[in-house]
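User: Please go through the entry that follows and flag anything odd:
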Amino acid sequence: QVQLVESGGGLVQPGNSLRLSCAASGRTFTKYAMAWFRQAPGKEREFVAAIAWSGDNTYYADSVKDRFTISRDTAKNTGYLQMNSLKPMDTAVYYCAAGGALGYRLVDFGSWGQGTQVTVSS
């Protein structure tokens, strides 16, 4: 398995931006698909975005399409989630995940980080 540590969360006003980072260690991160999920209080964990190990393919949830961008830097073993035009509905704990194949379901990813809190509020 690969170990993942998220960072970059915080409190931000609506309309502003944040960039989350996911630092990987352990097994070769470059051969894993990577994804971001989020979980708001009282709600189930939901898919946000995913990127293939090659970086060629990306998937986004409809709720974040055109606002969020997922990317990865294999040389740094780090993945990113650039979040623009943030809304209060984006408030959640954001989790980084890695798996053997590109997917959008929780079961598609076997390695998870501890999460980072993002709060969008004025």
Summary: The first strand starts at residue 2 and ends at 7.
